Amino acid sequence: MRLSHVSFRYRWRDPLIIEDADAELSPGDVIELTGANGAGKSTLLRLLAGLARPTAGTITGRPAVVGFAPDRFPAGQPFTVTQYLRHMSRVRGGAPWEPWAERLALSHLLGLPLGELSKGSAHKVGLVQALMAEPGLLILDEPFAGLDADTREALPAIATEVAAGGGIVIASDHQAGLRALHGVRHWSMIAGRLKESTSDTPAPEAEPAATGAATTARDAPSAAAARRSGPPGGPSERRHATVAVTLPAGDVQRFLARMHGEGFQAREIEESG
Ligand SMILES: Nc1ncnc2c1ncn2[C@@H]1O[C@H](COP(=O)(O)OP(=O)(O)OP(=O)(O)O)[C@@H](O)[C@H]1O
């Protein structure tokens, strides 16, 4: 998989969040992505996942199966854990999710509605949906945040297994949870630039994103963030609209991944003959 001169801005005339990123990812790579808050890590991960398109440059050779665990799992969906994971498994061609749920110590929570899960447990559900389809590219946005000690210890081994099976693993990680892994690559986002450090010491998390004007972008509530949190206060937070979408069956997985990444909720999937 290759990034060639990839630049990205959220809106026309906004500053570039990512500027001229070049990188090559090979099967078996485990990559730790660091950078200050707002440096553009999540943005880069979304570009890698195919959930956003580069403003300039290209990303080629993305593996067919991408597992993406966002930093904030959209837990406000009207499903129990089992219903949600079954549903994601169907979307992913019947991928086995139960062993992952067991491994991440979710088995006792399967009957709970997603909305009743603790932050860490909801995060685990996001990890299970990302792992179940044996991704060729596993993207983890702050995977260690909020996890209990056992799961924190399990994650490096899981990353190693995915890589050993020929997958690429990339994780943004303020907690250095993968740093001890043998052969881990260190990427950092600094001032809009993607840098790889060749030593075992990753580059410092020096500066936030791109240029001075990036402050505006960082501080402004993003459209996606606004959608995730909803309007402040009052019963309007609970108002929803349901939209029926028809699309080719082969696009369902990509569509759902993008939708979940944006914080939207899937209600029902129905395949016609
Ligand atoms: N949907 C959006 N629309 C406009 N600007 C955005 C959007 N999402 C993020 N940004 C801006 O892009 C910049 C990079 O954000 P990003 O979430 O990629 O940073 P990050 O390195 O992952 O930060 P953190 O470590 O805090 O998670 C920030 O300035 C942020 O405000």
From TrEMBL:
<protein>
    <submittedName>
        <fullName>ATP-binding cassette domain-containing protein</fullName>
    </submittedName>
</protein>
<dbReference type="Pfam" id="PF00005">
    <property type="entry name" value="ABC_tran"/>
</dbReference>
<dbReference type="GO" id="GO:0016887">
    <property type="term" value="F:ATP hydrolysis activity"/>
</dbReference>
<dbReference type="InterPro" id="IPR051782">
    <property type="entry name" value="ABC_Transporter_VariousFunc"/>
</dbReference>
<feature type="region of interest" description="Disordered">
    <location>
        <begin position="195"/>
        <end position="243"/>
    </location>
</feature>
<feature type="compositionally biased region" description="Low complexity">
    <location>
        <begin position="200"/>
        <end position="230"/>
    </location>
</feature>
<keyword id="KW-0813">Transport</keyword>
<feature type="domain" description="ABC transporter">
    <location>
        <begin position="1"/>
        <end position="216"/>
    </location>
</feature>
<keyword id="KW-0547">Nucleotide-binding</keyword>
<keyword id="KW-0067">ATP-binding</keyword>
<dbReference type="InterPro" id="IPR027417">
    <property type="entry name" value="P-loop_NTPase"/>
</dbReference>
<dbReference type="GO" id="GO:0005524">
    <property type="term" value="F:ATP binding"/>
</dbReference>
<dbReference type="InterPro" id="IPR003593">
    <property type="entry name" value="AAA+_ATPase"/>
</dbReference>
<dbReference type="InterPro" id="IPR003439">
    <property type="entry name" value="ABC_transporter-like_ATP-bd"/>
</dbReference>
